[in-house]
Design goal:
Length: 77
């Protein structure tokens, strides 16, 4: 049984050329390159959500960026 699903993707010719060049330089297939790029994108999005949540909670608690180090030090003491 197949563990992956095939997806179709449309790209401008210039981007295809860049992708083929990078895949060759990195000794990867284009599929491997796309999977890696999507993993990185999803990781970035996950961290953005975490940062947004943290900023929202900090705002609710009235915590400013300059308070963070002091609060960490106090917590660790």
């Amino acid at each position: 049984m197949r563990t992956t699903k095939i997806q179709t993707l449309s790209l401008p010719p210039e981007m295809v050329e860049q992708i083929e060049k990078i895949a060759k330089e990195e000794n990867m297939t284009k599929s491997e390159l796309f999977r890696e790029a999507l993993r990185e994108y999803l990781k970035k999005k996950r961290w953005e959500k975490i940062r947004e949540y943290g900023a929202k909670k900090a705002a609710e608690l009235g915590i400013r960026e300059e308070d963070v180090e002091r609060l960490i030090d106090e917590y660790r003491s």
